[in-house]
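F.,

This is the one I mentioned.
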């Protein structure tokens, strides 16, 4: 009997369940598709560190389930509000509270399971797209293929039951405690709001603007710091920006409405009196909510943009991070001859087309290593760059670290000559070269290096030795582990010190293989980008859901108001347009500032990091992608909310 009654109720209230159903479906689809990506054997086999993507997605999914449980609770409370008269009638007819709970649970259970399975089915198709994207990132041949993951389905189902169970339990508590009289008549209660002076709102708006500007200054300062102080600046920027956004949204709409209401000509034109009254009540009752949603949307858009652009920028600059096919770095004064066995060992693993063993020379008077011109030109040749010339009394700097270039230029302007190994050297015609050469391990250790003539370099002390090899087809990822094993095997390789040199207290050893580096660095890019995208989309969905149910929660009150317009002879088309404007205010006010901040982020990121990224217009491209994803989801919820609200408000009231 209860199942039949529940099905009848669902058919009758189908429009009220639309947004609820869409939210659960989208959440289930996103959850399954990303979990399927994380559990995919095809994806996990791409890199030895790909498990970090799985861990990140699992962590994000648990967080999503916990956050979504509160939104589902909010949605279920809305459904209870919509059905309170019906439940009160059931109680008056003698139905027990436990049976009403059972009826409500059956309805929500059917809707929830239907949404979950439809979402999972959609997620299966979406997961294929995500795997395609991963394959494209790793530049592997791929074709679109649909597959079902038992692990992803089971994990998604457990998390779904967790978030859905919390919402259902809270609903049971509400049903049990509500009185019949409240369910029948509390929609007739009036809302009371606090009012403040115009001066009060202006003061808070000024303070909020100062908070946002100060937060922006702290953000800019933090981006220029390369120590742990960065986190202090970032935390301060986030806190001040959040406070500023919150107070701006709490006070600016109220102030604008006050100013509009002061203009009698505008206030009494057409039906503006009714519209301004509706918006005023909306701002009073949902002001805090809109402020919180604005903060959530700012975080969502910023996270998505940062994740996508950081990952894409990292991939675009991959050649700069790994310019050499294979390299060995030993911060010890060893002989060049003792590294030759490493070259022979590598030749046994794959074909070596070219190799170079060279020193990074110590310059005691300056905080920089030196590199002989012949070695420098050999490195350039291996990288496909033209050789450069240098007079016997000149030097230049190679710096591929963009944020040091300006400082070095200023230092060279102040001091154009240096004294090195008894020779006075002046600045060459081209003072700084900036091509990617990896200058934190191979062609330097500080992000830049001093290039000097060979006759000067031979007078310096070679304190660090390097081996660089060019391999046929770029080598293979497993070569890195093989080289490391060779280095640490005393039976295979023995280091030999230069005459008169001793071992330093601490020896740094490093092995780089381009094939391994690209494969595993792309793993980090994939993890950052996909986790950021996952969390951001879910936040946008849940924020939109909260706004939708906030608008729909006042249906009884708004139905009475719009019925008054109907009795006054206002056309239905006009009332529909009013509803679109009213819902638009609730949706688009919280989105204005986040979108403005996004534009500043795009411009700022391009100004600060644009020259360091090898892909042109990268930040603009991914900024547009971020706004497009946000706009698509947001407009979908705006349309759904407007449709449901129009139907509920403009239809004939069922209960007089």
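My design for it:
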């Amino acid at each position: 009997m209860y199942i039949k009654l529940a099905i009848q109720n669902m058919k009758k209230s189908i429009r009220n369940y639309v947004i609820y159903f869409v939210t659960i479906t989208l959440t289930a689809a996103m959850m399954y598709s990303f979990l399927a990506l994380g559990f995919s054997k095809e994806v996990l086999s791409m890199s030895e560190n790909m498990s970090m993507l799985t861990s990140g997605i699992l962590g994000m999914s648990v967080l999503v389930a916990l956050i979504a449980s509160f939104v589902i609770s909010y949605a279920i409370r809305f459904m209870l509000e919509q059905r309170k008269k019906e439940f009160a009638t059931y109680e008056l007819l003698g139905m027990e509270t436990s049976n009403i709970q059972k009826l409500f649970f059956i309805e929500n259970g059917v809707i929830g399971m239907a949404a979950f399975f439809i979402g999972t089915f959609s997620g299966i198709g979406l997961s294929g797209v995500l795997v395609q994207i991963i394959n494209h990132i790793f530049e592997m041949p791929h074709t679109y293929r649909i597959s079902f993951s038992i692990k992803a389905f089971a994990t998604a189902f457990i998390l779904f039951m967790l978030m859905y169970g919390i919402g259902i339990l809270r609903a049971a508590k509400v049903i049990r405690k509500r009185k019949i009289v409240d369910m029948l008549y509390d929609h007739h209660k009036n809302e009371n709001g606090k009012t403040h002076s115009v001066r009060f709102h202006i003061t808070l708006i000024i303070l909020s603007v100062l908070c946002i500007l100060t937060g922006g200054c702290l953000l800019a300062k933090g981006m220029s710091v390369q120590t742990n102080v960065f986190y202090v600046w970032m935390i301060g920027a986030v806190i001040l920006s959040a406070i500023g956004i919150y107070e701006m949204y709490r006070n600016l709409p109220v102030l604008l409405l006050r100013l509009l209401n002061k203009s009698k000509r505008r206030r009494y034109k057409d039906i503006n009196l009714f519209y301004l009254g509706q918006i005023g009540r909306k701002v009073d009752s949902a002001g805090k909510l809109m402020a919180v949603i604005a903060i959530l949307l700012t975080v969502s858009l910023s996270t998505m943009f940062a994740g996508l652009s950081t990952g894409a920028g990292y991939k675009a600059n991959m050649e700069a991070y790994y310019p050499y096919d294979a390299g060995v770095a030993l911060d010890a004064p060893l002989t060049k001859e003792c590294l030759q066995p490493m070259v022979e060992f590598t030749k046994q693993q794959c074909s070596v087309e070219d190799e170079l063993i060279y020193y990074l020379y110590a310059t005691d008077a300056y905080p920089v290593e030196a590199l002989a011109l012949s070695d420098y030109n050999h490195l350039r040749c291996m990288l496909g760059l033209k050789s450069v010339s240098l007079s016997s009394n000149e030097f230049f700097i190679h710096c591929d670290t963009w944020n040091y270039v300006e400082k070095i230029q200023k230092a060279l302007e102040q001091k154009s000559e240096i004294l090195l190994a008894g020779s006075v050297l002046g600045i060459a015609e081209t003072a700084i070269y900036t091509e990617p050469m990896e200058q934190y391990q191979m062609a330097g250790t500080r992000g830049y290096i001093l290039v000097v003539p060979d006759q000067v370099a031979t007078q310096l002390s070679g304190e660090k030795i390097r081996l660089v090899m060019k391999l046929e087809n770029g080598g293979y990822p497993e070569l890195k582990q093989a080289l490391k094993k060779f280095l640490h095997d005393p039976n295979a390789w023995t280091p030999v010190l230069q005459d008169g040199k001793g071992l330093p207290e601490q020896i740094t050893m490093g092995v780089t293989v381009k094939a391994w580096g690209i494969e595993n660095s792309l793993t980090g890019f994939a993890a950052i980008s996909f986790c950021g995208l996952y969390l951001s989309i879910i936040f946008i969905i849940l924020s939109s859901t909260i706004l939708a149910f906030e608008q729909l929660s006042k249906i009884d009150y708004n139905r009475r108001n719009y019925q008054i317009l109907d009795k006054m002879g206002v056309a239905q088309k006009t009332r529909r347009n009013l509803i679109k404007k009213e819902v638009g205010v609730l949706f688009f006010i919280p989105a204005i500032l986040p979108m403005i901040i996004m534009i500043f982020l795009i411009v700022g990121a391009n100004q600060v990091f644009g020259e360091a990224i090898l892909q042109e217009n990268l930040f603009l491209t991914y900024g547009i992608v971020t706004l497009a994803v946000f706009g698509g989801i947001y407009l979908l919820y705006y349309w759904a909310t407007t449709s449901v609200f129009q139907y509920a408000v403009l239809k004939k009231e069922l209960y007089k």
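Strands lie at 326-330, 352-362, 370-372, 394-398, 417-420, 423-433, 449-452, 461-471, 509-513.

Talk soon.
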